[in-house]
Design a protein that fits this description.
The protein is of the alpha/beta class. The protein contains 14 helices and five strands. The chain has a five-stranded parallel β-sheet. Helix 4 (89-98) packs parallel to helix 14 and helix 11 (243-251) packs across helix 13 (272-298). Bound molecules: tryptophan.
Protein backbone atom coordinates (compact mmCIF):
# COMPACT_ATOMS: atom_id res chain seq x y z
CA UNK A 1 0.00 0.00 0.00
CA UNK A 2 2.23 2.80 1.25
CA UNK A 3 5.07 3.62 -1.07
CA UNK A 4 7.77 5.92 0.26
CA UNK A 5 9.30 6.52 -3.15
CA UNK A 6 6.90 9.23 -4.33
CA UNK A 7 5.95 12.26 -2.34
CA UNK A 8 2.90 14.27 -3.27
CA UNK A 9 2.80 17.97 -2.61
CA UNK A 10 -0.34 19.94 -3.24
CA UNK A 11 -2.33 22.72 -1.66
CA UNK A 12 -4.55 25.77 -1.90
CA UNK A 13 -4.50 29.48 -1.17
CA UNK A 14 -6.61 30.25 1.88
CA UNK A 15 -8.62 33.08 0.32
CA UNK A 16 -12.06 31.52 0.60
CA UNK A 17 -13.98 28.33 1.21
CA UNK A 18 -13.37 25.53 -1.26
CA UNK A 19 -15.99 24.81 -3.91
CA UNK A 20 -17.09 22.06 -6.29
CA UNK A 21 -14.46 23.23 -8.79
CA UNK A 22 -11.76 22.39 -6.24
CA UNK A 23 -13.52 19.13 -5.49
CA UNK A 24 -13.47 17.76 -9.02
CA UNK A 25 -10.19 19.49 -9.87
CA UNK A 26 -8.07 17.94 -7.15
CA UNK A 27 -9.67 17.30 -3.75
CA UNK A 28 -11.20 14.04 -4.89
CA UNK A 29 -7.87 12.99 -6.34
CA UNK A 30 -6.07 13.77 -3.09
CA UNK A 31 -8.50 11.67 -1.05
CA UNK A 32 -7.78 8.69 -3.29
CA UNK A 33 -4.04 9.22 -3.47
CA UNK A 34 -3.47 9.53 0.25
CA UNK A 35 -3.90 5.75 0.47
CA UNK A 36 -1.07 5.07 -1.95
CA UNK A 37 1.47 7.82 -1.43
CA UNK A 38 3.10 10.02 1.11
CA UNK A 39 0.97 13.12 0.68
CA UNK A 40 1.71 16.65 1.90
CA UNK A 41 -0.99 19.30 1.62
CA UNK A 42 -0.06 22.89 2.17
CA UNK A 43 -2.22 25.82 3.04
CA UNK A 44 -0.48 28.50 1.02
CA UNK A 45 -0.88 31.54 3.27
CA UNK A 46 2.22 33.31 1.92
CA UNK A 47 0.92 32.91 -1.61
CA UNK A 48 -2.53 34.13 -0.52
CA UNK A 49 -0.89 37.26 0.87
CA UNK A 50 0.74 38.08 -2.47
CA UNK A 51 -2.59 39.52 -3.61
CA UNK A 52 -4.20 40.01 -0.19
CA UNK A 53 -1.40 41.65 1.76
CA UNK A 54 -3.74 44.45 2.80
CA UNK A 55 -6.22 41.92 4.11
CA UNK A 56 -4.43 39.67 6.60
CA UNK A 57 -7.62 38.90 8.54
CA UNK A 58 -9.15 37.35 5.46
CA UNK A 59 -6.22 34.99 4.99
CA UNK A 60 -6.14 34.14 8.67
CA UNK A 61 -9.85 33.28 8.80
CA UNK A 62 -9.66 31.16 5.69
CA UNK A 63 -6.87 28.96 7.05
CA UNK A 64 -9.56 27.53 9.31
CA UNK A 65 -12.11 27.22 6.48
CA UNK A 66 -9.74 25.41 4.14
CA UNK A 67 -8.69 23.06 6.92
CA UNK A 68 -12.34 22.25 7.61
CA UNK A 69 -12.95 21.65 3.91
CA UNK A 70 -10.02 19.24 3.72
CA UNK A 71 -11.20 17.24 6.70
CA UNK A 72 -14.81 17.32 5.52
CA UNK A 73 -14.04 15.79 2.11
CA UNK A 74 -12.10 12.98 3.74
CA UNK A 75 -8.48 14.07 3.88
CA UNK A 76 -7.33 11.94 6.78
CA UNK A 77 -4.61 13.51 8.96
CA UNK A 78 -3.31 10.03 9.71
CA UNK A 79 -2.60 9.51 6.03
CA UNK A 80 -1.92 13.05 4.75
CA UNK A 81 0.30 15.71 6.29
CA UNK A 82 -1.39 19.11 6.30
CA UNK A 83 0.84 22.12 6.99
CA UNK A 84 0.92 25.90 6.92
CA UNK A 85 3.32 27.44 4.41
CA UNK A 86 4.67 30.37 6.44
CA UNK A 87 5.37 28.11 9.40
CA UNK A 88 8.11 26.52 7.28
CA UNK A 89 10.70 29.31 6.91
CA UNK A 90 12.84 26.90 4.87
CA UNK A 91 10.39 27.43 1.99
CA UNK A 92 10.99 31.19 2.05
CA UNK A 93 14.74 30.65 2.11
CA UNK A 94 14.68 28.19 -0.77
CA UNK A 95 12.53 30.65 -2.74
CA UNK A 96 15.26 33.27 -2.36
CA UNK A 97 17.88 30.96 -3.87
CA UNK A 98 15.55 29.91 -6.70
CA UNK A 99 14.90 33.53 -7.65
CA UNK A 100 18.43 33.67 -9.10
CA UNK A 101 17.49 30.95 -11.57
CA UNK A 102 14.42 32.66 -13.05
CA UNK A 103 14.10 35.75 -15.20
CA UNK A 104 11.49 38.45 -14.77
CA UNK A 105 10.47 37.97 -18.41
CA UNK A 106 9.90 34.27 -17.89
CA UNK A 107 7.60 35.05 -14.97
CA UNK A 108 5.70 37.62 -17.03
CA UNK A 109 5.15 34.94 -19.69
CA UNK A 110 3.68 32.41 -17.23
CA UNK A 111 0.12 32.04 -18.63
CA UNK A 112 -1.60 31.72 -15.25
CA UNK A 113 0.25 34.70 -13.82
CA UNK A 114 -0.58 36.65 -16.98
CA UNK A 115 -4.30 35.91 -16.65
CA UNK A 116 -4.29 36.83 -12.98
CA UNK A 117 -2.45 40.10 -13.60
CA UNK A 118 -5.14 41.02 -16.12
CA UNK A 119 -7.99 39.96 -13.80
CA UNK A 120 -6.64 41.85 -10.83
CA UNK A 121 -6.05 44.97 -12.90
CA UNK A 122 -2.59 45.60 -11.50
CA UNK A 123 -1.76 47.56 -14.65
CA UNK A 124 1.86 48.73 -14.48
CA UNK A 125 1.97 48.16 -10.72
CA UNK A 126 2.40 44.40 -10.38
CA UNK A 127 3.75 43.69 -6.90
CA UNK A 128 7.10 41.87 -7.11
CA UNK A 129 5.83 39.38 -4.52
CA UNK A 130 2.91 38.46 -6.74
CA UNK A 131 5.03 38.10 -9.85
CA UNK A 132 7.38 35.66 -8.16
CA UNK A 133 4.78 33.43 -6.55
CA UNK A 134 5.44 30.59 -9.05
CA UNK A 135 9.00 30.49 -7.69
CA UNK A 136 7.63 30.24 -4.18
CA UNK A 137 5.41 27.43 -5.41
CA UNK A 138 8.44 25.61 -6.85
CA UNK A 139 9.97 25.82 -3.38
CA UNK A 140 6.75 24.43 -1.82
CA UNK A 141 6.89 21.41 -4.05
CA UNK A 142 10.60 20.71 -3.93
CA UNK A 143 11.17 21.31 -0.21
CA UNK A 144 9.62 17.86 0.40
CA UNK A 145 11.02 16.55 -2.92
CA UNK A 146 7.51 16.17 -4.24
CA UNK A 147 7.18 14.34 -7.53
CA UNK A 148 3.41 14.31 -8.01
CA UNK A 149 1.14 17.33 -7.77
CA UNK A 150 -2.64 16.79 -7.98
CA UNK A 151 -4.03 20.12 -9.19
CA UNK A 152 -6.52 21.66 -11.58
CA UNK A 153 -5.24 22.35 -15.09
CA UNK A 154 -4.77 26.08 -14.40
CA UNK A 155 -1.73 25.00 -12.37
CA UNK A 156 0.11 23.31 -15.26
CA UNK A 157 2.27 26.40 -15.95
CA UNK A 158 3.44 26.24 -12.32
CA UNK A 159 4.58 22.65 -12.77
CA UNK A 160 6.42 23.57 -15.94
CA UNK A 161 8.14 26.46 -14.23
CA UNK A 162 9.04 24.22 -11.27
CA UNK A 163 10.70 21.72 -13.60
CA UNK A 164 12.75 24.45 -15.26
CA UNK A 165 14.01 25.51 -11.85
CA UNK A 166 14.71 21.91 -10.82
CA UNK A 167 16.76 21.31 -13.96
CA UNK A 168 18.71 24.56 -13.60
CA UNK A 169 19.42 23.92 -9.95
CA UNK A 170 20.64 20.37 -10.46
CA UNK A 171 22.80 21.43 -13.40
CA UNK A 172 24.34 24.56 -11.88
CA UNK A 173 25.12 23.00 -8.49
CA UNK A 174 26.15 19.71 -10.11
CA UNK A 175 24.06 17.35 -8.07
CA UNK A 176 20.66 15.79 -8.71
CA UNK A 177 19.10 16.94 -5.50
CA UNK A 178 15.61 17.45 -6.84
CA UNK A 179 13.44 15.06 -8.86
CA UNK A 180 11.29 16.33 -11.72
CA UNK A 181 7.63 16.93 -11.00
CA UNK A 182 4.43 15.74 -12.71
CA UNK A 183 0.93 17.13 -12.41
CA UNK A 184 -1.85 14.67 -11.67
CA UNK A 185 -4.97 15.83 -13.46
CA UNK A 186 -8.43 14.46 -12.79
CA UNK A 187 -10.83 13.43 -15.58
CA UNK A 188 -12.72 16.69 -15.38
CA UNK A 189 -10.13 19.08 -14.12
CA UNK A 190 -12.17 22.19 -14.87
CA UNK A 191 -15.74 22.71 -13.77
CA UNK A 192 -17.61 25.67 -15.30
CA UNK A 193 -19.46 28.09 -13.04
CA UNK A 194 -23.24 27.93 -12.50
CA UNK A 195 -23.52 30.92 -14.86
CA UNK A 196 -21.86 28.97 -17.68
CA UNK A 197 -18.53 30.84 -17.43
CA UNK A 198 -15.52 28.71 -18.31
CA UNK A 199 -14.38 28.37 -14.71
CA UNK A 200 -15.96 28.17 -11.29
CA UNK A 201 -14.36 30.76 -9.05
CA UNK A 202 -15.05 32.30 -5.68
CA UNK A 203 -14.35 35.81 -6.94
CA UNK A 204 -16.48 35.21 -10.03
CA UNK A 205 -19.58 34.72 -7.87
CA UNK A 206 -20.54 31.53 -9.70
CA UNK A 207 -19.45 28.86 -7.24
CA UNK A 208 -21.19 26.18 -5.20
CA UNK A 209 -19.23 25.82 -1.97
CA UNK A 210 -18.77 22.54 -0.14
CA UNK A 211 -20.07 24.32 2.95
CA UNK A 212 -23.27 25.62 1.29
CA UNK A 213 -26.34 24.29 3.08
CA UNK A 214 -29.20 22.58 1.25
CA UNK A 215 -31.18 25.83 0.86
CA UNK A 216 -28.26 27.69 -0.64
CA UNK A 217 -27.51 24.78 -2.96
CA UNK A 218 -31.08 24.70 -4.13
CA UNK A 219 -31.10 28.45 -4.78
CA UNK A 220 -27.89 28.23 -6.78
CA UNK A 221 -28.99 25.27 -8.90
CA UNK A 222 -32.32 26.96 -9.60
CA UNK A 223 -30.41 29.97 -10.97
CA UNK A 224 -28.16 27.83 -13.18
CA UNK A 225 -27.63 28.65 -16.82
CA UNK A 226 -29.52 26.21 -19.06
CA UNK A 227 -30.84 26.82 -22.56
CA UNK A 228 -32.14 30.40 -22.89
CA UNK A 229 -34.36 29.33 -25.81
CA UNK A 230 -36.05 26.58 -23.83
CA UNK A 231 -39.05 28.61 -22.74
CA UNK A 232 -42.04 26.27 -22.60
CA UNK A 233 -41.79 22.78 -21.14
CA UNK A 234 -42.88 21.21 -24.42
CA UNK A 235 -40.16 23.00 -26.43
CA UNK A 236 -37.14 20.94 -27.45
CA UNK A 237 -34.14 22.00 -25.37
CA UNK A 238 -30.41 22.07 -25.92
CA UNK A 239 -28.09 19.88 -23.88
CA UNK A 240 -24.81 21.32 -25.13
CA UNK A 241 -23.67 24.25 -22.99
CA UNK A 242 -26.53 23.58 -20.57
CA UNK A 243 -24.90 23.68 -17.14
CA UNK A 244 -27.38 21.28 -15.55
CA UNK A 245 -26.31 18.57 -17.98
CA UNK A 246 -22.66 19.54 -17.71
CA UNK A 247 -22.91 19.01 -13.94
CA UNK A 248 -24.91 15.78 -14.30
CA UNK A 249 -22.17 14.44 -16.57
CA UNK A 250 -19.63 15.17 -13.85
CA UNK A 251 -21.54 14.23 -10.70
CA UNK A 252 -24.23 11.67 -11.53
CA UNK A 253 -22.92 8.13 -11.53
CA UNK A 254 -26.18 6.90 -13.12
CA UNK A 255 -25.08 7.56 -16.70
CA UNK A 256 -28.02 5.62 -18.12
CA UNK A 257 -30.43 7.96 -16.36
CA UNK A 258 -28.52 11.03 -17.57
CA UNK A 259 -28.71 9.74 -21.15
CA UNK A 260 -32.49 9.33 -20.81
CA UNK A 261 -32.90 12.82 -19.37
CA UNK A 262 -30.86 14.29 -22.23
CA UNK A 263 -32.99 12.53 -24.77
CA UNK A 264 -36.21 13.69 -23.10
CA UNK A 265 -34.94 17.28 -22.87
CA UNK A 266 -33.98 17.39 -26.55
CA UNK A 267 -37.33 15.90 -27.55
CA UNK A 268 -39.23 18.44 -25.46
CA UNK A 269 -41.49 17.90 -22.48
CA UNK A 270 -38.88 18.02 -19.71
CA UNK A 271 -38.98 21.31 -17.80
CA UNK A 272 -35.95 23.07 -16.35
CA UNK A 273 -37.37 23.06 -12.83
CA UNK A 274 -37.91 19.32 -12.81
CA UNK A 275 -34.45 18.76 -14.25
CA UNK A 276 -32.86 21.07 -11.72
CA UNK A 277 -34.62 19.30 -8.85
CA UNK A 278 -33.00 16.10 -10.05
CA UNK A 279 -29.55 17.73 -10.03
CA UNK A 280 -30.19 19.11 -6.54
CA UNK A 281 -30.83 15.54 -5.33
CA UNK A 282 -27.65 14.28 -6.96
CA UNK A 283 -25.53 17.08 -5.45
CA UNK A 284 -27.11 16.71 -2.02
CA UNK A 285 -26.18 13.03 -2.12
CA UNK A 286 -22.55 14.07 -2.58
CA UNK A 287 -22.52 17.09 -0.28
CA UNK A 288 -24.62 15.97 2.67
CA UNK A 289 -21.95 13.74 4.25
CA UNK A 290 -19.33 16.46 3.58
CA UNK A 291 -21.48 19.11 5.31
CA UNK A 292 -22.10 16.82 8.24
CA UNK A 293 -18.43 16.11 8.78
CA UNK A 294 -17.58 19.81 8.39
CA UNK A 295 -20.02 20.75 11.15
CA UNK A 296 -18.64 18.03 13.39
CA UNK A 297 -15.05 19.22 13.00
CA UNK A 298 -16.09 22.87 13.41
CA UNK A 299 -17.22 22.08 16.97
CA UNK A 300 -13.59 21.97 18.06
CA UNK A 301 -11.57 24.59 16.20
CA UNK A 302 -8.56 24.11 18.42
CA UNK A 303 -8.35 20.43 17.56
CA UNK A 304 -8.52 21.38 13.89
CA UNK A 305 -5.63 23.83 14.25
CA UNK A 306 -3.67 21.20 16.14
CA UNK A 307 -3.90 18.93 13.08
CA UNK A 308 -2.17 21.63 11.02
CA UNK A 309 0.45 22.28 13.71
CA UNK A 310 1.35 18.62 13.97
CA UNK A 311 1.56 18.32 10.20
CA UNK A 312 3.75 21.42 10.08
CA UNK A 313 6.13 20.00 12.66
CA UNK A 314 6.55 16.82 10.64
CA UNK A 315 7.05 18.76 7.39
CA UNK A 316 9.62 21.00 9.00
CA UNK A 317 11.92 18.07 9.69
CA UNK A 318 11.84 17.09 6.03
CA UNK A 319 12.26 20.72 4.93
CA UNK A 320 15.25 21.17 7.15
CA UNK A 321 16.97 18.12 5.70
CA UNK A 322 16.37 19.33 2.13
CA UNK A 323 17.69 22.80 2.90
CA UNK A 324 20.87 21.34 4.42
CA UNK A 325 21.55 19.53 1.17
CA UNK A 326 20.84 22.71 -0.79
CA UNK A 327 23.19 24.80 1.30
CA UNK A 328 25.91 22.23 1.01
CA UNK A 329 25.96 22.27 -2.79
CA UNK A 330 25.61 26.07 -2.80
CA UNK A 331 28.64 26.37 -0.52
CA UNK A 332 26.57 27.95 2.22
CA UNK A 333 27.48 25.20 4.65
CA UNK A 334 29.59 27.38 6.96
CA UNK A 335 31.17 25.53 9.80
N1 LIG B 1 -1.28 28.00 -6.65
C1 LIG B 1 -2.23 27.22 -5.92
C2 LIG B 1 -3.58 27.98 -5.93
O1 LIG B 1 -3.72 28.93 -6.63
C3 LIG B 1 -1.84 26.98 -4.48
C4 LIG B 1 -0.49 26.38 -4.28
C5 LIG B 1 0.58 26.96 -3.67
C6 LIG B 1 -0.05 25.08 -4.70
N2 LIG B 1 1.63 26.15 -3.64
C7 LIG B 1 1.30 24.98 -4.27
C8 LIG B 1 -0.65 24.00 -5.38
C9 LIG B 1 2.05 23.84 -4.52
C10 LIG B 1 0.11 22.88 -5.62
C11 LIG B 1 1.45 22.79 -5.20
O2 LIG B 1 -4.48 27.63 -5.23
Amino acid sequence: MFCGCFAILTGDRPTGKLHLGHFVGSLQQRVIMQDQYEQYILIADAQALTDNFENPEKVRANIQEVLLDYLAVGIDPKKSTIFIQTMIPEIAELTLYYLNLVTVNRLLRNPTVKTEIAQKQFGESVPAGFLMYPVNQAADITIVKGTLVPVGNDQLPMIEQTNEIVRSFNRIYKKDIFPEVSAVLSKSSRLPGIDGAAKMGKSLGNAIFLADDADMLSKKVMSMYTDPNHIRVEDPGQVEGNMVFTYLDVFDTDTQRVAELKEHYMRGGLGDVKLKRYLIDVLNGLLEPIRKRRLEYAQDQEAVMRIAFEGTEKTREVANRTLCEVKEVMRLDYK
